[in-house]
Write a structure and sequence with these properties.
- This protein is an all-alpha fold.
- About 60% of the residues lie in helices and about 0% in strands.
- It has six helices and no strands.
């Protein structure tokens, strides 16, 4: 009779390995032989050594433009910079249409979208056509 389980396992591995593995398979038993246990430990270490990924959890977030809070100083700096960069006369700041534009823009809650040059050109052309149509209508009324 063998009193020590590890001695029994070593004896099985050396003298009866094939019969023991066949018995383990037939009885759905995990082999406790040292070589098999070592293989399981190495396989577990190899599996856990792989770095996990966050691909399923990560999603792309599009950056949003940060709206800078208003301050009088910031507005003055931006206005002076605009005057200098666009070579505008200083009297532009006193013009009623400039003041109207600033007043309209100040009501925006999430910033102002400034149209590009193509959209601005299209707006000017549309406004010109509208004015010409209105003028033509007025002149036709006067002639009648």
């Amino acid at each position: 009779i063998v009193a020590d389980a590890s001695t029994c396992r070593r004896h099985l591995a050396y003298k009866h390995k094939a019969a023991y593995l066949q018995w383990c398979k037939a009885n759905n038993f995990m082999s406790m032989l040292a070589s098999d246990a070592q293989e399981r430990r190495l396989a577990a270490a190899a599996t856990s050594a792989k770095q996990g990924t966050l691909d399923e959890h990560v999603r792309e977030v599009k950056p949003s433009e940060r709206v800078v809070p208003y301050s009088h100083q910031l507005f003055r700096e931006a206005a002076v910079e605009w005057l200098i960069c666009t070579n505008q006369p200083i009297q532009t700041m006193d013009h009623p249409s400039f003041k109207k534009m600033v007043d309209v823009a100040s009501r925006a809650t999430n910033g102002v979208i400034v149209p590009n040059r193509h959209a601005t050109r299209r707006e000017i052309m549309d406004l010109f056509k509208k004015q010409m149509t209105h003028l033509r209508e007025r002149l036709n009324v006067c002639l009648s």
